[in-house]
Amino acid sequence: MPENTEKNLAYAFAAESKAAVRNDAFAKKAESDGYPQIARLFRAIADAESVHARRYLRLMRGKIGSTEENIETAFQNEIKANVEEYPKLIKDASDGGRRAYRMPSPSPATWKAAMPSFTKRP
Length: 122
Ligand SMILES: [Fe+2]
Known about the structure:
4 helices, 2 domains
């Protein structure tokens, strides 16, 4: 696959993923503001954006592996975010005089500890 196409797919995947999360947040806000029909509309849009994001992800060859590979990928992504990326963002915010903190997320050790309890359906 041409490099430009890979970059465009990654961009589209990120954009659709963000749209899905954003519209889901809008749905929650509409619900709490007392607009259940508008909340349903935003949820439907969020679901559609998730479908679009998954389509792009499937087109990004090698991004969805076996479940075992996906667990390892998820571990590595969490480790990278928590060890390399977020500390830099937090430092930048602190340097700029802003308060910043790391979002709580399960540590890779927590995930790995839970692994033996997973069983594969026969
Ligand atoms: Fe979309």
